[in-house]
Design a protein that fits this description.
Number of strands: 7
Number of helices: 4
Shape: globular
Distance between the termini: 34 Å
Radius of gyration: 15 Å
Helix content: 25-40%
Order of helices and strands: EHHEEEEEEHH
Oligomer: single chain
Strand order of the largest sheet: 1-7-6-5-4-3-2
Strand content: over 45%
């Protein structure tokens, strides 16, 4: 399954890249499930991120490894790959892109995931989509002047 969201912001690529820190990571958290940051190394290759999701009656840990990052003219990006996922996910690959197109900067969330079965893939899609759609106004608040 794939989720793709593109958000326009007013800052430069470098300013947006510099803003991808733990403070922004925490601000992007949707209301449910709440999470606690266990580890946040950053957005460079080799960094790790860990959170504990609180589903009220149970908790699940999620760990991701930053497996790639690149800074080039017109685009910066980093990729996190789930290494320890909640029970409802079997794979997770999230490419965070910051691109400059036609005098405009965009933040692109390009997510590929799988669940243990195809029916669950489709059932979980709207939930994940809404959780990432939730990020759009936060990105704008952070990166618009």
């Amino acid at each position: 399954m794939n989720i793709f969201l593109k958000t326009s912001v007013e800052k430069s690529i470098q300013e947006v890249w510099d803003g991808f820190d733990e403070k922004l990571f925490k601000a992007l958290a949707p209301p449910f499930p709440p999470f606690r940051v266990l580890r946040f190394d950053g957005c460079l290759t080799g960094d790790k991120v860990g959170i504990e999701l609180d589903f009220i009656f149970f908790k699940q840990n999620w760990e991701s490894d930053i497996i790639e990052h690149q800074k080039a003219d017109g685009e910066y990006y980093f990729v996190d790959k789930g290494s320890r996922l909640p029970f409802f996910l079997s794979t997770w690959l999230h490419k965070h892109r910051i691109v400059r197109e036609n005098e405009q900067t965009y933040i692109i969330d390009d997510i590929k995931y799988k669940t243990p079965n195809i029916i669950l893939d489709f059932l979980i899609y709207p939930v994940l989509y809404l959780q990432f759609l939730y990020r759009k106004p936060i990105y704008r608040r952070y990166f618009n002047t």
